[in-house]
Amino acid sequence: MDSEEEYLSSSDELMPDDSGDEMSGAEDFDEDDFDEPDPDFGLSAKDLDKKKVAAHAVSFKVFEPSDIRRQQDDMMNDVNMILDMNKEDAAIMLRHFRWNKERLLEDYMDRPEKVLEAAGLNSNTSSQPKLQAIPGFVCDICCEDEEGLETFAMKCGHRYCVDCYRHYLTQKIQDEGESARIQCPSNGCGRILDSRSLDLLVTPELTDRYHELLNRTYVEDKDTFKWCPAPDCPNAIECGVKKKDLDKIVPTVECLCGYRFCFGCPNPDHQPAPCDLVKRWLKKCADDSETANWISAHTKECPKCSSTIEKNGGCNHMTCRKCKYEFCWMCMGLWSEHGTSWYNCNRYEEKSGAEARDAQTKSRTSLERYLHYYNRYANHEQSAKLDKDIAQKTEKKMVQLQTTSGMSWIEVQYLNSASQALQTCRQTLKWTYAFAFYLAKNNLTEIFEDNQKDLEMAVENLSEMFEKPIQELSDPKLKVDIMDKTSYCNKRRVILLEDTAENLAKGTTGTATSIHDSLRLTMSV
Amino acid sequence: MSTKRISKEFAEVSQTPIEGFLVTLPPNNSVHTWHVTLQPPASTTFYPGRFGIVLTLPTDYPFKPPVVKFVTRVYHPNITNDSLGNVCLAILKAENWKPSTKIASVLEALRNLLVEPQPDDPLEERIADEYRNDREAWEAKAKAAVTKYALEDPVFPAS
Asked: What is this structure's pTM?
């Protein structure tokens, strides 16, 4: 793997402030310290050709909470063995180095003292921290000084009464959701709380919460990891796609829970459109700019009072409802000056008029083009929602079907597959329209549009069959039809995605007039 | 638990006052509200103004930082130029605050903020731009605000 690759989120700013210069290169290192390192990370066009994997697919791996914990434990054990430091300290060091073990080991070998200090582990004493009462002690936080007050200090030696320490930790963990970066309560001390100290001080519930939060930082610290965004899903996904490749590849991943999302941006699956295009499209659809476009295409302003007027029929003799000014819709001149040429403006060919018309035509054409794609995009979005509603009823349907037709649970699974195919295909179709909006016209776009048309027709057919009432669904012939159509839809979808992904990836070679090139052209205008 | 600590801190600040600060408790003697009058050093733009600051100590002080508000209007990049007088100060942020931090350090940080505004971390974007790009105009306006609002004894809101 190249060492200067830029990882997805450049989260240098998440580094602790005290990390100093020796940490600045942490991103430059590979994160290949997993149990099963996957050489496919960071797919490039070359890799794809060599490996013959599907061009529209990226390799990724789903991790359940137990996997995440195990990975952390394994790495802690490694560091614990190699550097002969206790596990708590190893954990703190690993977190400080954002779980880049190689970097940690290398830096530690070079300058152990400096690394320990930067990670918040510099120690004055080597004795294990414990609760103790110290004669004549005054807690610097609450100012209590009674005899026999139990106190606690981490290895940094900043000692406070147990109540204050507990209160502090509870607040950090419970209220602020902190875990890996909880420092000693002393002003200016960067010593990081270790889990052994935590166990001595707080209740088991709080310790559980702390470990849950720590698990989270593990995923959040690693640039190749992301949480599955589906509600209540505890899994994380690892995918090695690089930020700079996002114009060539659309990294859709699928969690074990079934949720499909894009690893490159915060959106749900948007194949075949690349992330950048999706961002532009969503912005365009959300912007008022299109409303403004519509206004300029369909309305004019009253030459006298400047009210915006939409002409919804009738002749060119306009009377402003507001100021009663009478004018000609064509040339915007005063109606009374038109003389005898009623209903036929002879100033139509004037130069100023021609320019105004040109501007208006242009705006109208671009608007119509946009609306063409937007309507289809929105239509599939809407239909996907409807299909989803139906899918929720599918289960009920499946139960009914079992009772009416005597089919088994396995035998009615085809409805479930059909419903899933419908949703996935609609999602893809939706984004083909956003994608097409940014495409320049050439013979590749024709192929794209043919693919799009095929998929769309298949999906509409399947959707129609799927909505049929139970009585008809129990017909074995329809069942076969639905199963055929389902697999046909899935196939068409893959063909479309393959084709587009190949063309996107080819854009890197710069030789062929690929979709990618034309895409760049239109997008840079 | 916090009362003991607050009383102790108040006693310290009263017995050995920090230069430029006068700290009193409101008429109802609640230790959770401090009325602070700050007179910035003669070298600063804000001299000879006297600025009223209300320091509110939350019930779980010192685990939560005090809340600081200027009651006197200040023309300053890090203090909102309105009747709220909110302040942006790094040590008062939850992630930086440590329970062992003393109010005396907060007060010192406030004085430093008047001596040296932090335009890169502004609450008033416009004033910060002016401070960076047209220092003379900023000084003139800051001085005018001092003359207009800060020459009398500050008036603290009844709480």
From this structure: 0.60
